[in-house]
Amino acid sequence: MKIILTRVFVDDQERALKFYTGTLGFVKKSDVSAEGYRWITVVSPDDRNGTELLLEQNDNPVVQAYQRGIFEQEIPAASFGVEDTHAEYERLKAQGVEFTLEPTEVVDQVTIAVFDDTCGNLIQIQTLQK
Which PANTHER family does the protein's record reference (predicted)? Predict the structure, then answer.
């Protein structure tokens, strides 16, 4: 069994698509509209057939409450692996990304940082363990 799709709920799909591709560097995999619904997924440029991240509209009141609740409690909605958390922090900070947690070593050789994705979520990045 393997994970093929996961999601983050977003308050604006177009802004999310621009942020996740233009700022973070993901690649758009699908963008399909049907009956007022838009299915947008992005993938890592290093693994275009890998796990897809669905940028799902948060138009459900239960989803909105969940999203708001975890944001207010500073719980990241997703976690992405990077080669070097410090370098990625500097790259994203230079693009105007707002961080709620600067690079912090949490366990031996694991460094995390947390930023606001501009679409209602906190996202964690962490150094990939080798």
Answer: GLYOXALASE/BLEOMYCIN RESISTANCE PROTEIN/DIOXYGENASE, GLYOXALASE_BLEOMYCIN RESISTANCE PROTEIN_DIOXYGENASE
The pLDDT value given to residue 44 = 96
The domain total for the chain is 1
Residue 118 belongs to domain with CATH number: 3.10.180.10
How are the residues of the chain apportioned to helix, strand and coil, as percentages rounded to the nearest 5? 25, 40, 35
Pair 79, 123: CB distance under 8 Å: yes
One-letter amino acid identity for 49? N
34/99: higher pLDDT:
99
Show the domain range for 70.
5-127
Average pLDDT (40-63) is: 96
